[in-house]
Amino acid sequence: MHVCDEKELSEAIVSAEGPLRIIGGGTRGFADTVSGTELSTLGLNGVRVYKPGALTLVVGAGTPVSEVEALLQAQGQRLAFEPMDHRGLTGQSGPPTIGGMAAANVSGPRRIQVGACRDFLLGVRFVDGAGRIIKNGGRVMKNVTGYDLVKLMAGSFGTLGVLSELSLKVLPAAETAATLRIEGLDDSRAIEALAAALAAPFDVSGAAHTEGATLLRLEGFAQSVSARAKKLATHLSRFGPAEILDHTATDMIWKRLRDVVPFHDRPGNVWRISVKPSDGPRIGAALRDMGEAQIIYDWGGGLVWALLPDDIDARAALQGIRGHARLERANLENRKTLGVFAPESAVIAQISAGLRARFDPRGILNPGLMQTAKRG
User: Fold this and answer.
1) Which among 20, 32, 255, 352 is placed 20 to 30 Å from 157, CA to CA?
2) What is the pTM (predicted TM-score) of this model?
3) What is the C-alpha separation between 71 and 47, in angstroms, rounded?
């Protein structure tokens, strides 16, 4: 079922006689764990308002992210939180949409510097499970009316309401960028180097360890980036010599990391694990003890991407460590067996149930999507 405007969306939800499977571009592949009639938001597209001088953008939820990025690039601006394109990882072909991006709170390597997708949401319009059209927030940062509800929709995966329109804060693009690359560090030493860089006053916008390379990104005006890169290399000299890579190489490296390209077309399940950065190497070691594992560290070690055999549940590595793991890519059987999302604690489960009762009283919006994990 396709809808082309908010009124049609509301009517579709009101008239629904059973569960609805909400999708945008379908790039993550989560929706096939939900039984129900497909409701696509791709028709809710188009830029409503764009004010480059005010750094604000209002756009329909079904608008492809690529269209928004092209529009911003023409004005020397960008989505600062650097949203990932999941298609290469998941094998899906639909276009990533702005609504899907917000519903999943998709945030890339620059999150350590600027924050997550939810931090750039100024306002949302959505239709809840009763068909009510709800507007929350505003188009400027100082308007904080309903601020919590705006944040609540980010990461709700279409279980509380179907996004129809979003207001976003955008930022100027950097004039240039450089990457420091240090080779040969083990996981623990690499995360120590990333922590040292992030604690120093060099305004690092990316901090990762992948494929044997420890990577740090700097962005800004050319003269500033050059000076900071040299000072940071000196600051980290105890970890080994740092090669300084130019803007072109930097773009390639961080797009590759953002989209988890090393795990594309590789057999196995891909897990996304969020922990305290200093716990990253512990997670990596635990996963390797459980079987063959390929590991990528982003966010200074706080985001761990793991490629694991199909029969390994990455959540077992979190015993005694605070964090959570999501099954980002797997076949349908594995997603149903292992569950996409981690089991909720009793307190969180109670809060979630209360929210769903408030916004989706009939329980028809992506039912069960975020409660599919096994419970021990």
Assistant:
1) 255
2) 0.92
3) 9
